[in-house]
Amino acid sequence: MTGSRSLSSGLRALRPAAFGVDPSGERMERIRRSPNYADGVFRNPEGAPRPDGAMREFAKSYFRKEERVLRSPAGVVPVHATTLADLAAPPASGLRLTWMGHSSVLAEIDGHRVLFDPVWGERCSPFAFAGPKRLHPVPVPLTALGPVDVVVISHDHYDHLDLPTIKALADTDTLFAVPLGVGAHLEHWGVPADRLRELDWHETTKVGGISLTATPARHFCGRGLRNTQHTLWASWVVAGDEHRIYHSGDTGYFTGFKDIGSEYGPFDATMIQIGAYSDFWPDIHMTPEEGMRAHLDLQGDRPTGVMMPIHWATFNLAGHPWAEPGEGTVSAAHAVGARAALPRPGEPFEPTAEAVPSELWWRGVALVPKGGWPAVEKTVTEKVAVGEKVTEKAVGETVTEEAVVEGSVVEKAGRDTPRDKAADTGDPESVPTG
């Protein structure tokens, strides 16, 4: 018995710090009381999806040379040269998002700064010498971000919870909002317990003038070798005095998006996972089409907010071509007349401004697919005066004052309007958001 304990202690000593630790003590007791925990593990809404037994087949396709070259950019990814001045001046509208790549987003909302899933490390891996490596540099040094009020973590996978980044943030005054159980990792890495806000689904914490609510997602968790499923995964709602935003974390599509939208929405912006999807794990990551459906579900009866695609372009984590999530988002948005923001990594924008980033920037650095890039259709619009209001309508559309008052003109211009394909050059246009 003594020899067994010595061996166990020796193995723990060899365990990489990045593996974190399993919850224990009062934290584990709280987990056992969760309505989302049963039979020793956290449960998903609508079943219990996990990657199926087809990983061997996925590995075969993943390492085929002809497919491997498509999964990385062919040139240098155009990272936006964000400056300290860009982030120092407050957003005119009160809401600004800066996508840092993958799922990392700095959200400035109603006077507060929220940092989602910050990953500044070179690899999303427990090891510095192996694992998926960055395809572009971080747009802004972590030390240049300035004060952050709260760091929000969606779950404990390596591409969302990064040891070197957390250690750097542990030396600041920021708070951390995390799903139930994830706090064990952070405490192990030096984050004081009094700076943790650990939430179950539908629990809310206040930080200054904003509220943060953990909401359901359809995914799984795990670091290290055991993957005990003792830490929860979540999407997040952040609400201020004037604005509401949503971050999906990682999730498969499920009908619960409608419930989240009904209870907490609509949102000025949604940040939706649309990359690293595969037929081998259809229940835990969304395709762009599913991501757009989730965005519309979250908006309910007022689909006016902007959708920003996340979880793509930074790490090679699936078998699809590198540029496919971006192209798929554009196609999905066009099909339903939704508004999608397409910033370069590091490019700040205000979702409620008149226009959001819409350039298909990835085309300049990706391998051109067989048959070339698809054409980008555009709706030709014009400004018109209706009563005392000036609004925007599609060319050829009749607009009534009632429609302007109800705010339906912009939606119609994106969905049920004639297209001027002769004027289409393939260049993207600014998408009206006001």
Q: Cα-atom Rg, whole angstroms?
A: 22 Å
Q: What is the arithmetic mean of pLDDT?
A: 84
Helical proportion?
10-25%
Strand order of the largest sheet: 8-7-6-5-4-3-16
Strand runs, count: 20
Question: Between the first and last Cα atoms, what is the distance in angstroms?
Answer: 69 Å
Q: Give the uncertain stretches in residue-range form.
A: 6-11, 379-384, 393-399, 403-434
**Shape by Cα distribution:** globular
Brief account:
The protein has 434 residues and is α/β, with parallel strands linked by helices. It is built from twelve helices and 20 strands. Helix 8 runs parallel beside helix 9 and helix 9 crosses helix 10 (324-336).
Question: Can you tag this structure with a few keywords?
Answer:
434 residues, alpha/beta, seven-stranded mixed β-sheet, disordered C terminus
Model description:
It is a single chain. The termini are far apart. The protein is built from 12 helices and 20 strands. By secondary structure, the chain is α/β, with parallel strands linked by helices. The protein is 23% helix and 19% strand. α8 (256-264) packs parallel to α9. Strands 8-7-6-5-4-3-16 form a 7-stranded mixed sheet, with no helix packed on it. It has a 7-stranded mixed sheet with strand order 9-10-11-12-13-14-15, covered by helices on one side. The chain has helices at 2-14, 25-33, 55-62, 65-68, 84-88, 163-170, 183-188, 256-264, 288-299, 324-336, 401-406, 409-415, and strands at 37-38, 41-42, 95-101, 104-109, 112-116, 150-152, 175-179, 196-199, 204-207, 210-215, 235-239, 244-247, 269-273, 306-310, 339-340, 348-349, 355-356, 381-386, 389-394, 431-432.
